[in-house]
Amino acid sequence: MTVTHQKLSKRFAAEVRGIDIAAGVSAEDFAEVERLFNQHSVLVFRDQDIDDDQQADFSRRFGALEKTVIINEGGGTEIAIIANVHPETDEIIPPDDHRMVFNSGNEMWHSDSSFKAVPATASLLSGREVPPTGADTEFASMRAAYADLPAETKQRIEGLVAEHSILYSRSLIAPDLFNEEEADEVPPVRQAVVRENPVNGRKNFYVGSHASHIEGMDIEEGRALIGELVEFATRPEYVFAHKWRPMDLVMWDNRCCMHRGRSWEKARYRRVMHRTTVAGIGPT
Ligand code: OGA
Ligand code: MN
Question: Ligand 1, atom 4: nearest CA belongs to which residue?
């Protein structure tokens, strides 16, 4: 076996070496990647000069891919393009353009697709063009944080259900990002607050910007609890910040990690990221 790995922070995240996605990954090497994914939650692969088909083919080995929701630019494809350049003119989109405002929602701590009835297992983000400084992607391990929760908090959150909605999270940035028709496509969904990895049984809590409130609990009380959990998981000891180099591919476990994009000089530097998203296998 040629695959090796090196931990990137004390509690989670690892860089994987010996994988060349464009050249093809053997079944044996892939099994090791999958094992590392379940163990470390965030995997960094450097120098992966891949195109969209290669990215989608590799991603599909983890499971069926999600399609982007219609409101995204170029919607309804397996590749979500998160970029500050216009798809047709190739010019930088002004930071106050509605697409950029919508994408700035990624700067809040979140788990991808937690607003869908079956939320995503994994996301794979390929840095096609990255700015020279800024625009780190940060990850927070809700698994490491859960392990350190006081026993009474673990008891308090066991069995709770949170309501997640992208209308809620986007309303925090701007009130009018969705029209009525678009809003109808993304009704609120129910998510377990405590989840368990199906392979190793490790538990974590599951919150993020789309989590609006807790079922059966006063709205403000539930919101405060969600806020406490987000704040706890984003303490420095549970956070890993990835500094992008071109051709990095970073994959993360949405079941147990939150992430957020950090800002950069958006009017000055191009940033083009291509994302594939591995769908979950059932409701939480
Ligand atoms: C995403 C995301 C953050 C970033 O692709 O899901 O949240 O740094 N990206 O681009
Ligand atoms: Mn995201």
Answer: 261
Ligand 2 geometric centre to CA of 188 (Å): 18
Count up the domains in the chain and report the number.
1
At residue 74, does pLDDT exceed 70?
A: no
Residue 46 belongs to some domain of the structure: yes
CATH number for the domain including 134?
Answer: 3.60.130.10
The pLDDT tens digits of the residues spanning 89-103 come to: 999 999 999 889 888
Query: ∠ CA 245-249-250 to the nearest 5 degrees?
Result: 100
Cα–Cα dist 94/128, whole Å: 20
Cβ of 105 below 6 Å from ligand 1: no
- Strand, coil or helix: 169: helix
For the entire predicted model, the pTM comes to 0.95
Tokens at 183, concatenated: 């809003």
Q: In 3D, which of 177, 251, 252, 248 has the Cα closest to residue 208?
A: 252
